[in-house]
Structure formats: C-alpha cells, structure tokens
From TrEMBL, chain A:
Membrane topology: Multi-pass membrane protein
Coiled coil ranges: none
Family membership: Belongs to the complex I subunit 6 family.
Annotated function: Core subunit of the mitochondrial membrane respiratory chain NADH dehydrogenase (Complex I) which catalyzes electron transfer from NADH through the respiratory chain, using ubiquinone as an electron acceptor. Essential for the catalytic activity and assembly of complex I.
Chain ranges passing through the membrane: 6-25, 32-50, 56-77, 89-110, 151-172
Protein name: NADH-ubiquinone oxidoreductase chain 6
Annotated gene: nad6
Enzyme class: translocase
Pfam families registered for this protein in UniProt: Oxidored_q3
Keywords: Electron transport, Membrane, Mitochondrion, NAD, Respiratory chain, Translocase, Transmembrane, Transmembrane helix, Transport, Ubiquinone
Organism of derivation: Gracilariopsis chorda
From TrEMBL, chain B:
Transmembrane stretches, start-end: 6-30, 42-59, 79-101, 108-125, 131-150, 162-186, 206-225, 245-269, 275-297, 304-325, 331-357, 378-397, 403-433, 459-487
Lineage: Eukaryota, Rhodophyta, Florideophyceae, Rhodymeniophycidae, Gracilariales
Organism per entry: Gracilaria vermiculophylla
Name of protein: NADH dehydrogenase subunit 2
Gene name of the encoded protein: nad2
Location in or out of the cell: Membrane
GO molecular function, one term: NADH dehydrogenase (ubiquinone) activity
Limits of the NADH:quinone oxidoreductase/Mrp antiporter transmembrane domain: 127-427
Amino acid sequence: MYTDLFLYFLFSSFALLASLMVISLSNAVHSVLFLILVFCNIAGLLLLLGAEFLSFMLLIVYVGAIAVLFLFVVMMLNIKKTSTTLSFFFNRPIGIITFSILFNQLLGVFNDFDTFGLKQKDLIWISWITEHNNLTNIQAVGKVFYTKYSFLFILSGLILLVAMLGAIILTMHQRTDVKKQKIELQLNRNFGGSVKFINLRK
Amino acid sequence: MYNFYSILPEIYILCNICILLMYGVFFSTFPSLGYPLLNKNFNLLVLQILIFSFLLAFSQTPLNLLNWNNLLISDFFTYYAKLIIILATIGWLLLSFGYSIKEKLNYFEFWILVLLAVVAMLFITQAYDLLTIYLTIEFQSLIFYILASIKRTSEFSTEAGLKYFILGAFASAFLLFGSSIVYGLTGLTNLSDLSKLFLGLIGNEISFNLIIGFIFILVALLFKLSAAPFHVWSPDVYEGAPISVTAFFSILPKLAILGLLFRFLLFTFYDFISYWQSIILIAAFLSILIGTFGAFAQTKWKRFLAYSSINHIGFFLLALLSGDLNSISSVIFYGIIYIITMSGIFAFTVNVNFYAYSKTYQLRYLSNIKGLAKTDPFLAFALTIILFSMAGIPPMAGFFAKLFVLLAAVQVDAFGISIFAVIMSCIACFYYIRLIKNIYFDSVINWKVMEPMHKMSSLILGLSLIGILFLFIDVEMVSIITLLMSIPFLH
C-alpha cells in the first residue's frame, strides 16, 4: 500500500507550495490564509507520523489562536489592497477537485460495503489486547511530562508568568491625566447650559 | 530529596516572588491607602530576599550530582557561580537604589522581574540538557526584553526593547534549530550523553550536519554573550535602556552564559575542538578589534561601556581557545574581576548627576567629566583607579586578569593572537587614559555643580575600589576559587 507515501507527498508538496505563496503574495490577508494552510498540512504530516496529540495541538494553537490573531492584526493595520476579481472559471477547478474527492468517498463506501445485502465485505480485525494495553499519545506525553520532565514543565510555567507580567507592565497605563469620555457629564448637558453669555469689560 | 536541596535558593526566591506579586498587586491598587508607591519598599524587600538566598546558597554543601532527572547539574562551578551571581545582584541593587527613586521607575514589577532574572541566571549555570539550556535562556531573554523597555514613556527605551526582542528572538530560533538538528541526528539531548557519544569520534568522519547544528547553537550562545560578529545589538540596547538596566545587563548575565559556553564547548563538544577552535579564534579576534576601535568613536558613556565590554568578551574567548584547566580558571578569574570593575564604573555612571539651574542632568557624554578633579577630587581618584584597572595597568586587578588570560594563551602557542591582544590593549589604554586626561588636565569654562552620590552606591564604589586596588596582595584568594570552579569542566 502506497497510501502513506502518497499522503506524505501530498501534504508536504502542499505545505511547500503554500509556504511559497505566503512569502510571494502581495496581499497580507491572503498570505496569512496560506499560512493557515501550511499549518493544516503540517498537522496532516504529524498525523501520518502517528503524533496525533501534537498535530491537534498544532491545529488548536497555531490555527485557532495565533493565525487568527495575525489575521486580526493584519486587518487592523489597514494595508492597501490590490483588488483582484475572481472569475467563474477560476472557481471551477476547485469545484471539480472537491466534487471528485467527495465522489471518490462515495465510491469507496460502495466498494467496501455490500449495499444490497447490507453487510461488510471484508472483515476488519481488531486486536483488543493491544487496544486495551495501548498507551495513547497523550497518556505517554503526560506520563513523562509530569514526572521526568517536571522541571521543564515548571520552567515553562515561569516563562508564561514572565510573558504575562511583561504584557501588563508595558501596556497598562494607570494615569490620572488621561482624557477620557465621561458619559454622565455628556448626558447632563442641555441646550441651555451649552452656550454662555458673559459681559466683557469695555 | 537532593532535587530540592540543590536548588533551594531558587525555590526560596520563587516562593518569595509569588508572595511579593500578590502583595504588590493588592497594595498598589488599594484605594483607602491612596494607591501607594511600593518602589522603596520593594527595593528593600528584594535586598532582604537576596541576602537570605545568599546565606542559603552559602550554607549548602557543594554537591557533585545530577538532579531533576539529569536536567540540572550541581558541582563546584555552580556552587560558586551562584554565590557570585547573587552577590553581584546585591551589589547592583545597592548601586541602582538611588537611581530608581530619583528617576521614578515606579513599577513594583521591575523588582519582581529582577528576582526572576536572578533565578533564570542561576538555572542557566546549572543547565545540563539541551532542553534546559533552551528554556532557561529563553526565560532570561524574555525578562531582559521587558527590562530593556521598562521605561515605556521613553522612545529610546522602547526602541531598545524592540530591537533586543527581534534580534534576540532570532538568536533563540538559532539555538532551537541547532538543538533540533543535534537531537535529530543523535537522539540525545543530555550533555553528558552527547559527550559520551562523541568520545571516539576524533579521527573519524563526523557528520557534516552535526557540525552545522553545533555551529547554530554556538552562534546563539555567542550572540547572547555579545561576542563580536554578533555584537551589533549590544551598543544600541545598552544605550536605549535605562542606565540601571544597562548596568544589570553588563554586570550579571555574562558569567552565567560563559559557564554554559564552557560546559557546552569544553565538556560536551570537546572532541570537536578542531572545528570550534577556529570559530572561537575569529570571534575573539573580532571582539578585541571591534571592542577597541569601536570605543574610540563613542561620545556617550553607555555606548563606550558597551564596546568596552565587547573588548572584555574578546579576552574571555581568547583564553577559551586552549580549553585546559589553566585557561578555564583564568577566564573565570577575568570574569570575577570584570564583575567587580563593572560594578565600580556603573556605581559611578548611574549615580552622577549634574545640577544646572532648576534641573539635574544625568551623566551622558564622555566629555561631561571634564574638570571632575576640581569639583570632586575623591570621586575623580576612584574613577581613575577603575579606568586604570580596565586599561590593565600593573598593580590593579585588571592587569592580573589580562596577564593570566595571555599566559594561558601563550602556553598553547597562540602567539599571533596573544601579540595582537597585547597591541590592542595598548591602543585601548589610550582611550582609557584619554578619559583620565579629561578628568585631570582639561580646563573647563562652565563649572558644573554635582549632586552628592547616593550613600549605598558610594558604598559599592568603595568596595569595588578596594577589590581592584588590593587584589595584588593576595591574588590566590580569588584564584583558588576559580581553580575549584574550573575543575568540573575537565574530563
């Protein structure tokens, strides 16, 4: 079976292409989107290696948090966009690819499954002993993380503490002379009080 | 049990950090007390904590063991390095005492960050695993980025922080990349495991990729040490940061990183000596060259001191070349003298303020000290002694430091670089002595009025002066300790 190899090449080539796009695109938003694509592909590669915990962490942390943060920052920076119009013909290949993938899935279901007899053609064997004794990835990570490498765990906790402290020190301004909007004063104003007449000495 | 015993001072400081954080957060936002400024209070508390942790570290037995699952090591070097680092921090605290009150650095978090930085440096001296090395160095650098930009209303300070952050993050990435290459090729992260693996590799083919990984790590460490081809950040960061933070950067972390470099080069990668010797040689050569000639062009004290420290780093690396007992001990000796001298000169630089009507000015330009001999002869004398020591004039401590380093270099027939170092140090003499000429012989038209120094910092200045002046009576007092510290690095 060359499925693994095929998937490996697929993911790595997509990752390469997407990372090339990240640095070559002129629109910052698009390049961040391609960065997310890179992360997704790397997560796929990690899944192939059997490190499912790492791969999902990558998805959650990088795609879920960091890349979205990037996206927000890039959008807030108000970078001038070069507008591109998407034509119908540009969309069509993507549609075809999606369709063929879905169709392939459907075919696969029909191949493995005897639809008329409502039963599976090939039996799948599960070794329940290994399933039972097997350590999942997360369990294995946790077992060394909280025992052998507990020092590193505490150290990374300290690093996070420093990051929190730094963010608070460098950004929180507690000053009294900052000009703020005072809503109660604004609401109290009326037409009568807004213009005053005063007599100047001639 | 030994796990906790060996890092008792760090645990003590960390517990106190937690308590101080709570205390600071509650009290600085307490309306009925009128939002008190906790600056002075925190300064004294931190002083107390450091003195207690010094006593803790001092009363420990020097152990020789690996702990925390071989992630940390404790030996003679870590024992004495801890003592030196905590002592140097106490000295720094005393000399920056007046400055922080005068300049209104009213963030209590500043002192907590200082304590955290001390913990980070103590861990760096004990790091014994690539993972620990990366995490501790990252821990230290993160604190330093914040410290550099702590004066957030000042443009220079934020610029320094940002510059330091970007370049430092780059170096950290190098460190991580190099470690991952080494791990990928060997499957090991522990320094002693790596050293055992490399034991027989001398004559054989060493994988080229391994050397690349090694060089990546070495470059990152040299960057953190601000050795010459990777020194560009240091003058800018030193100049931009508030001067007490500059003093912190230049006094404290050098010894910790240097210890790590020893452990890395002389213990783990000793069998690669033919490869790293040339790299260290180039770095030493460039450090001395740039440190000497760069300092010529400077007009500001902070930049001047930055280049001068690059020059000293060159001497550290010079003695590293041979990698035997003598040379390690001479580097540590130089390091201790460096800490003493830098404490002295920063006690001067941080605390000298000139009074011009209605305002006081900090010492900023080198030419500010013209005519100091007339306005304050004792201070002028103290500064002269320190500058003589930095230049390496015989009876001062700086002379012995340079002498031992050069002797160690000559013993392995490194004549070329030794002669070069001697010539460069003669040239360096010129600008140190030019400052002394400014102090004593230049006539000034506008006499300056100086504010009296803070009592604590004058204490530090005096102590460092005594150390520099009277070391020659008993050099062994220091050199025995340095010899003890250098023993663990031998095979």
